[in-house]
């Protein structure tokens, strides 16, 4: 079983690495940010409200996130494991996850602050399939996966990035200690190129089996 959680500040490359880990181990990538952007919350009124919370860089309430993730993890493709990207983001979410599903490892992408801004500012997102890429790997302004047009994310503005970072420090950073106490934390150096980080993650994951 590989029930994995990816931890790291906004812009640490969780989405990029999650895709690679999922390819390697044949398990689904569950990005709560992407699910929210796709509108997984059925009620349109609620969906609008959540999108405005996201655009401000704030967090969606725990009870909504917990239910959304619980529903998703019930699907049959999660039978051999999953990679959660963007969840948990608070201690309450982490406790909910441990109580309801339990994870094997929490992989921390330990990323120096100066790299984060560069990564977020270079982020481009497909307006059709939601795929996320860094400009450094793109040669055109279309999505390498589906050919859709690429744009920037509504919450990738300088003020919002700062707010997301502060929220990370206050609410999400404590998860590192939480998973350390459970002996589930795997600390990975998140600096260097995306490929270098992928190699580190895959090597460590293989050694953990
Ligand atoms: P990043 O890749 O920069 O970490 P995400 O795509 O994971 O951003 O998430 C974008 C936004 O979606 C968050 O800023 C937040 O508003 C909302 N969101 C995603 N996951 C959660 C969560 N687990 N709890 C609360 N809000 C969330
Ligand atoms: Zn696309």
How is the topology of this model organized?
Layout: E1 2-7, H1 14-25, E2 29-31, H2 32-38, H3 44-55, H4 62-73, E3 81-85, H5 91-100, E4 105-110, H6 113-121, E5 123-126, E6 132-134, E7 150-151, H7 158-172, H8 174-181, E8 185-189, H9 194-208
Parallel strand pairs: 1-3, 1-4, 2-3, 4-8
Antiparallel strand pairs: 5-6, 5-7
Helix pairs in contact: 1-9, 4-5
The structure holds adenosine-5'-diphosphate (ADP) and zinc ion (ZN).
Describe the structure.
With 209 residues, the chain is an alpha/beta fold. It has helices at residues 14-25, 32-38, 44-55, 62-73, 91-100, 113-121, 158-172, 174-181, 194-208; strands spanning 2-7, 29-31, 81-85, 105-110, 123-126, 132-134, 150-151, 185-189. The strands form two sheets. It has a five-stranded parallel sheet with strand order 2-3-1-4-8, sandwiched between helices. It has a three-stranded antiparallel sheet with strand order 6-5-7. Helix 4 (62-73) runs parallel beside helix 5. The longest helix is centred in the C-terminal third of the chain and has 15 residues, at 158-172. The model has no long low-confidence stretch (mean pLDDT 92). The structure holds adenosine-5'-diphosphate and zinc ion. Adenosine-5'-diphosphate (ADP) binds at residues 10-11, 14-15, 32-33, 36, 53-54, 57-60, 65, 86-87, 89, 93, 155, 164.
